[in-house]
Amino acid sequence: MNTTEFLNITSLIVPERTAIVFDGKRFSFHELEERVKKLANALSGLGVGSGDRIATMQVNCNENIETYFAAAKLDAVYVPLNFRSRPEEIEYMLNDSEPKVLITGERYVSMVNDIKGDLPTVDHLVVLDDASVEGWESYETLIASASDDDLFPEDDEDDLTMVMFTAGTTGSPKGVMLSHDSFSSYILSNVSPPEIESEEKNILTVPLYHIAGIQAVMAAIYGGRTLIIQRQFEPVEWMTLVQEEKANRAMMVPTMLKMLMDHKDFETFDLSSLEVITYGAAPMPLEVIKRAIGQFPGTFFINAFGQTETAATITMLPPEDHLLEGSEEEIEKKLNRLTSIGKPLSDVEVRIVDEDGGEVAVGETGEIVAHGPRLMKGYWNQQAATAEALRGGWLYTGDLGYFDEDGYIFLSGRAKDFIKRAGEMVSPEEVEQILHSHPAIDEAAIIGVPDLDWGERVRAIVVAKPGSTIDEEEVISYCKDRMASFKKPESVVVVDELPRNPLGKVLKRVLREEYSYPMED
């Protein structure tokens, strides 16, 4: 199914239902569809056609959603960029994906103007926020002057609809190619179409350059759920929106959930309308989810595990496994299951395999691999990386885990040494490259340190050059000036040498065993 059908179907069944609540504005599903039609015609007038890329860079807003569906109507490819990235990262992603149109918020205009001379494929720059900028076209003006004639896409199923960048093992972002089936397979198997007599409201705080945010949008549009959009997560605003709008559903990164419960005003808000909280994108500490179950009485919790390459969720720990009821033995078993990622969903097959691709026994650790129609098509412009990840129709996720005797999957670590800090992916190689450029550092390795608040935090293990002295705060500042802030080391440990195997590879496992003690704030 082409994803434009999600909006078409819902606007026919519940046209007057509120689709989006954002920044004081409200759009019905009919109004949203009309804006999408006009934007599609406006983009067509700018020369956008089948296969062309349209990139966006902005915090969460209704325009991001409109741009995706307008792109799909044109059989174009949507490219959401991480607005937290540094200019050189943005330049790399734009030149890799080669979009014809770039749509950004006003706050990013200056940065784009600085690099636009190095963006040969970008023919049109479009600014949001009702702004007027020389050399840029206004988003709202484009919509206001465009036709509302409907456009009918030809792409379907396995055709490319989105390129979403994720961290790469070499330090450069990789563009994950997602098809219409990448989304429709999951949605049609796990989400019910809208019902005229019942309404749901979903508060959206996960960024829309993240697969969890995109999945939440697709589910809400197809399910006829009202999307209450928060630009970026902020605890008081989040609680205010839930209270005032009576939100029923939320998707949270564990860090967000803990920030809410730790806030001094948490008890003053009425959050009783919340029926379902889905969490994921980073490891959930057992202490946090146990506390949340008590602090949100009557709310069901779901642990969703997946990655960009799988178009989000492939395994789920359902609400019933979060109900800490029964005998002492049953509660103990459920507490153990809370540390798992649940079981595979019905529309995807999941196995755990050894280095040769053979399935391992129950309780034995191996790599988690997945198979199904919604896996990525591959990495944009990266054939070698695609061949490494997709083998024989199976996606090798890079995550290590094992099945228990009841079919629940427990994570054991990651084969690829990515660090997940508050849901953001950090490539150790990228940080190490910066550290290696420091004049006082001879060798460097990056590890993730488990943290209750952030899931993981970034620690640098470094060796000084002969005759040099390393100052921790100076190294952190050095990195902060050269990369996105969330990627920088938050602590630095100086050692005499790094442990290596006979081939010279740094033994990260040894480093984690010795230096994964908690950080001091």
Report on this model:
By secondary structure, the chain is of the alpha/beta class. Among the domains are: 4-232, ANL, N-terminal domain (Rossmann fold, 3-Layer(aba) Sandwich); 419-515, GMP Synthetase, Chain A, domain 3 (2-Layer Sandwich), CATH 3.30.300. The protein is built from 16 helices and 27 strands. A 9-stranded mixed sheet has the order 2-1-11-10-12-13-14-15-16, with helices on both faces. A 5-stranded parallel sheet has the order 4-3-5-6-7. Strand 13, helix 11 and strand 14 form a beta-alpha-beta unit. Helix 1 (4-13) runs antiparallel to helix 2 (29-45), helix 1 (4-13) packs parallel to helix 8 and helix 10 (254-262) packs across helix 11 (286-295). The radius of gyration is 23 Å and the shape is globular. The relative contact order is 0.09. The model has no long low-confidence stretch (mean pLDDT 93).
Which helices and strands occur, and which strands form pairs?
Elements lengths: L3 H10 L4 E5 L2 E4 H17 L7 E5 L4 H12 L3 E4 L6 H11 L3 E4 L4 H7 L8 E4 L9 E2 H6 L15 E7 L7 E6 H11 L10 E4 L6 H13 L2 E4 L5 H11 L3 E4 L1 H9 L13 E5 L5 H10 L4 E8 L4 E6 L10 H10 L5 E2 L4 E5 L12 E6 L6 E2 L3 H7 E2 L2 E10 L5 E6 L4 E3 L2 E3 L1 H9 L4 E11 L3 E10 L7 H9 L10 E4 L13 H8 L6
Parallel strand pairs: 1-11, 3-4, 3-5, 5-6, 6-7, 10-11, 10-12, 12-13, 13-14, 26-27
Antiparallel strand pairs: 1-2, 8-9, 9-19, 14-15, 15-16, 17-18, 18-21, 20-21, 21-22, 23-24, 25-26
Helix pairs in contact: 1-2, 1-8, 2-3, 10-11
